Amino acid sequence: MGLSPSGTVPTIPMKDIFKAYDIRGIYPSEINSSAALRIGEGLVRFLRKTKKGKPSTRAKLGAGLAPHRNEVSGAGLKIVVGRDNRLSSPVLGRAVKKGILEEGADVIDIGLSSTPMFYFAVWKYNYDGGIMVTASHNPPEYNGFKIVREKADAIGEESGLREIKKLTLQKRKEDKIKKGVVKNKNILKSYLDFSSPRLIFLMPDLKRLRIAIDTANAVSGILIKELKKRLPCKIYHLFPELDGRFPNHLVDPLEEKNIKDLKNFVKEKKLDLGIAFDGDGDRIIFVDEKGEMIPSDFITCLISQRILRQKPGTKILYNICSSNIIKDVVEESGGIAMAGKIGHTFIEERMKKEKVFFSGEFSGHYFLSPYFFEVPLFVLFKVLEEISQSGKTISQLVRPFQKYFHSGQINMKVEDKKKKLKELEEKFKGGKISHLDGLRIDFKNWWFNARPSNTEDLLRIVVEARTKKLMEEKKKEISF
């Protein structure tokens, strides 16, 4: 589909592609150039509306408190646009840039970029907002957008995405607007400088390590060549070619079938560590020297211990569906453990509100104050530090965290998610009930969490117990 002319409303069901914390759908039946153009326009209108009369960050830094010039036309707004390497991303990227320009804002085009690189660009250079063309870990037929305002603050359903949808679907007024301009910006080097400030001090310790990194033919592949220059480790790069069809395996590393090649490679080469990134590079998953996937909760524990050795009393945030081991480890290490909802926007809001320093998600997202966006390279470097300085293998480091038996995420197809949650609550009503994120019910020796997916007709179930036998029994009871 081509771009819709100005003033016309797209004939596609755009309301269905707006999710809880991003925009996502199948290309081109659900999301296409027409939608991208109007979303670009809607984003500028939203930012213009929210910033009207409010001094820009750049103005504060450079010229006192002067407000944006000509806010009504959108002039002065500078919006970052990045994209992953899906086959449809160049088309959607061009369309969203056209929408931004036609609404009078300037585009800072960072080109191919991981999502953390995109967040960094908005945050580092004090731009007014940004839009990343990506469908994250979804299969290749999907695409979408992640949107932020200034300081890389994520925009979700409750923090502006609903308003952007409304503005996107409105018929545009035929105002004469001076179009914005495009500036291309390469941020790879500055992003890596930001992510690895202490590596120079670790070179002797890191030199002996041998690691494999699987980027699954996805956009994170652009990072590895530069990482090889900066790290003294021996790095093997699996599936480095950028191919938006993802021909070797899908780009969700939380699914163990998608990291089978990485696991086998680590074992065959007798490496120290395996690393897998998802489709847009904001999730990182680790494989130990035996070729076994390390639960992300264990990585959260490992990083938390390291942080708390230097900053006792620090607050650590984790998902309510994560293992109880995080709470145990954080409190034993002198920190404050806090359970929260899944999702970038929810995590960012909670971290800011309650001054949380570090957050780890069950799915392999990790966040750090004061940036409040995903920091996968920070986590990678901290893991490498811990291995090199302790003299232990990664499996030895995480072994103390193997206290409980956690099912991992179980996806169950459900058409009426609310009804099924009510049935589960009634069936297991004898425990301690929480509705913080879906349904969690705790009993003495086990608990479960059932969370409705924001993007699919699924309930995401996790079960944890003190014994494997009990965990398996409860999994069967909950299954339907």
UniProtKB/TrEMBL annotation:
Its cofactor is Mg(2+). Keywords: Isomerase, Magnesium, Metal-binding, Phosphoprotein. GO terms for biological process: carbohydrate metabolic process. Residues 410-478 form the Alpha-D-phosphohexomutase C-terminal domain. Residues 55-170, 207-291, 296-404 form the Alpha-D-phosphohexomutase alpha/beta/alpha domain. The keyword Magnesium applies. Gene3D superfamilies: Alpha-D-Glucose-1,6-Bisphosphate, subunit A, domain 3, Alpha-D-phosphohexomutase, C-terminal domain. GO terms for molecular function: intramolecular phosphotransferase activity; magnesium ion binding. PANTHER family: PHOSPHOMANNOMUTASE. Belongs to the phosphohexose mutase family. This is Phosphomannomutase/phosphoglucomutase. It comes from bacterium (Candidatus Gribaldobacteria) CG10_big_fil_rev_8_21_14_0_10_37_46. The gene is manB.
